Amino acid sequence: MGLPSLQDIIAAIATPPGRGAVGIVRVSGAGSLELIQKLWRGKDPTRLPGGRFTFGKVCDPQSGEVLDEALLLVFRAPHSYTGQDSAELQTHGSPAVLRRVLQVLFQHGARPAQPGEFTLRAYLNGRMDLAQAEAVLSLVEAESEAARRQALRGLSAGLSRKIGALSEELFNLLAHIQAWLDYPEEGVEPVEVAARLEPVLTEVRSLLATAPAGRIASKGARVALVGAPNAGKSSLLNALLGYERAIVTPIPGTTRDYLEAPMEIGGVPVVAVDTAGIRQTEDLVEKSGVERALRIAQEADLVLYLADQSQPKPPPPPLPWARTLRVATKADLPPVWQDEAFLPVSSHTGAGLEALRQEVHRRLLGEAPEGELWISNERHVEALQRAEVHLQAALEAPLDLAGLSIEMALEALSEILGKNVSEEVIERVFRNFCVGK
Ligand SMILES: Nc1nc2c(c(=O)[nH]1)N(C=O)[C@@H](CNc1ccc(C(=O)N[C@@H](CCC(=O)O)C(=O)O)cc1)CN2
Ligand SMILES: Nc1nc2c(ncn2[C@@H]2O[C@H](COP(=O)(O)OP(=O)(O)OP(=O)(O)O)[C@@H](O)[C@H]2O)c(=O)[nH]1
Ligand SMILES: [Mg+2]
């Protein structure tokens, strides 16, 4: 396979499939402006300065037929997204127009862009590193505030700077060790390797510690609602959702199967899972519902354990208590018991719901301050874990062997930014992009 050539002119529709007010066709590669010249009626694109737009008409040069009125954006290398000569035709956003424009471009020398190929070119031309390219993808895919914020952090090269600084420190350390090994008598200070390695290892570990929150910020979390029958699980799901999604009745055992409802809690994408009430039962259907509820709780990122405070307190079921938030329901009714470990809520009056949302947000994302760097990409997590292992080994090794481990840690770190990575790694990253990005 191999990576696609940088020399070709590539073209693709950059706007989503379907009808839109405006649609964009993107073209990039040396000769793009000469290609556009053939189908543009208006100011000569090859004579326009970069960073300009102009109004005109897109034509089929063979028949002379006008395809649409459009805006043309001209970018000149290296001042474009890809770093190459590029252009955008912004037409009316009908699929019929966009398809024809693309077809004419293909007939006159462009080829279809592969998924992510514009961003691939930006990366190969050094306009962004691999971690930033991945952040572009995450940003396009962001479906929540938390995901958008998380992706934007990656785009702004914060991670790249951090990894760069750590790598530089390791490089310097390596140079010192080398000098000392090569000329022990020359008076090069035998460096305090451990004293300089430890802060790097600590940084790597604290980056890794952000991974669970980072993952949840970008991909969302599963939150299970569990408790005895009639505890008010379905009512709470509806209250959080803002509409009557789940069936609610006064009959215990109403919810038999589980039910998933996507929602956003404090900007975090959450799939809330309403489950069957947990109790001993001979009913076969209900029994498997109860088994399911317990399994869903085990697999959830966070469990809400609901207990009705207007009824005698039920015995606690087997739950992953470290990941469980206790909720006392029906807070509008006179309480039979009180327990400070339980957050009181009423699905009927809405009391306590906001506090619950905040607590869920806090439990899922922790107290990490706004704007802090979070790792969310699996590839980055894996590379950091390898760096951690090698740095730990370097700390424990004699000086002559420590150098080797530091080199391997450096390699792992540089992979994050896409330095010295195989084509296969690059292909894997860009495979997930959409065409036109
Ligand atoms: N119409 C349109 N909107 C878009 C993009 C695009 O390519 N086209 N983008 C992309 O997907 C994003 C913006 N990112 C971009 C980043 C750099 C350059 C660029 O041409 N940079 C040049 C010139 C900068 C300047 O004029 O100041 C440079 O950095 O040298 C363009 C878009 C989001 N919106
Ligand atoms: N007063 C009051 N009643 C509530 C509240 N939440 C739920 N209820 C009532 O409690 C009963 C059971 O509510 P559900 O939401 O169906 O309880 P559940 O936990 O889903 O029950 P199962 O599906 O049977 O396990 C219904 O009659 C609800 O109206 C509340 O906040 N206040
Ligand atoms: Mg229910």
Explain the overall architecture.
This protein is an alpha/beta fold and 437 residues long. The protein folds into three domains: 10-127, Probable tRNA modification gtpase trme, domain 1 (Gyrase A, domain 2), CATH 3.30.1360.120; 135-210 and 376-421, tRNA modification GTPase MnmE domain 2 (Four Helix Bundle (Hemerythrin (Met), subunit A)); 231-365, P-loop containing nucleotide triphosphate hydrolases (Rossmann fold, 3-Layer(aba) Sandwich). 43% of the residues lie in helices and 19% in strands. The protein has 14 helices and 13 strands. The chain has helices at 32-39, 95-107, 117-124, 130-141, 145-155, 158-182, 193-209, 211-219, 233-241, 284-299, 353-365, 378-396, 399-416, 423-431; strands spanning 9-13, 20-28, 40-41, 52-59, 66-75, 86-93, 110-112, 221-227, 259-265, 268-274, 302-308, 324-329, 343-344. The protein has a seven-stranded mixed β-sheet with strand order 3-4-5-6-2-1-7. A hairpin with a 2-residue loop joins strand 9 and strand 10 (268-274). Helix 6 (158-182) packs antiparallel against helix 13 and helix 7 (193-209) packs antiparallel against helix 12 (378-396). It is flat. The two termini are 21 Å apart. The model has no long low-confidence stretch (mean pLDDT 93). The structure holds ligand FFO, guanosine-5'-triphosphate and magnesium ion. The site of guanosine-5'-triphosphate has 24 residues, from helix 9.
